[in-house]
Amino acid sequence: DVFYNGEKVGEHCIELIVNGEVLVEIRSNPDSLELAEAQTKTYMKVAGLTRGLLVDFGEEQMIDGLKRISL
Predict the structure, then answer these.
(1) CB-based contacts of 4: which residues, under 8 Å, 6+ apart?
(2) Is this prediction's pTM over 0.90?
(3) Angstrom distance (rounded) from CA 4 to CA 51
C-alpha cells in the first residue's frame, strides 16, 4: 500500500524480482512507455534495487518491447 499524510492513496505490486537483484515489470500496453518507465523506477526505489527490466508484450517484435533500466 502507498500512504500520503497517513492516508492510503494507492497500491503498488511488484510482479517479479530475479535473484533479489533485478526487478521485472511486465506490460502489454505500448501507449505510455514513459509512464511505464517511471513506474518501474519507482518500484525499484521502493524495493531498494538498482537494476530493472521492462517487458512490453504490446510491441510487434519482442526485442522492441524490452527496456533495461538502471538507477
Answers:
(1) none
(2) no
(3) 26
- Residue recorded with cell 497517513: 6
Count helices and strands in the chain by DSSP H and E runs: 1, 6
The alpha-helical segments, DSSP class H, found in the chain are 33-47
- Strand-pair category, 22-27 with 51-56: parallel
Q: Are 69 and 54 in contact (CB under 8 A)?
A: yes
Q: Which residues of the chain have pLDDT under 70?
A: 1-3, 10, 12, 30
Mean pLDDT rounded to a whole number for the chain: 86
* Residue 49: C-alpha distances to residues 12, 27, 52 (Å): 15, 19, 8
Nearest to 69 by CA among 28, 48, 40, 33: 40
> What length does the chain have?
71
37: which DSSP letter? H
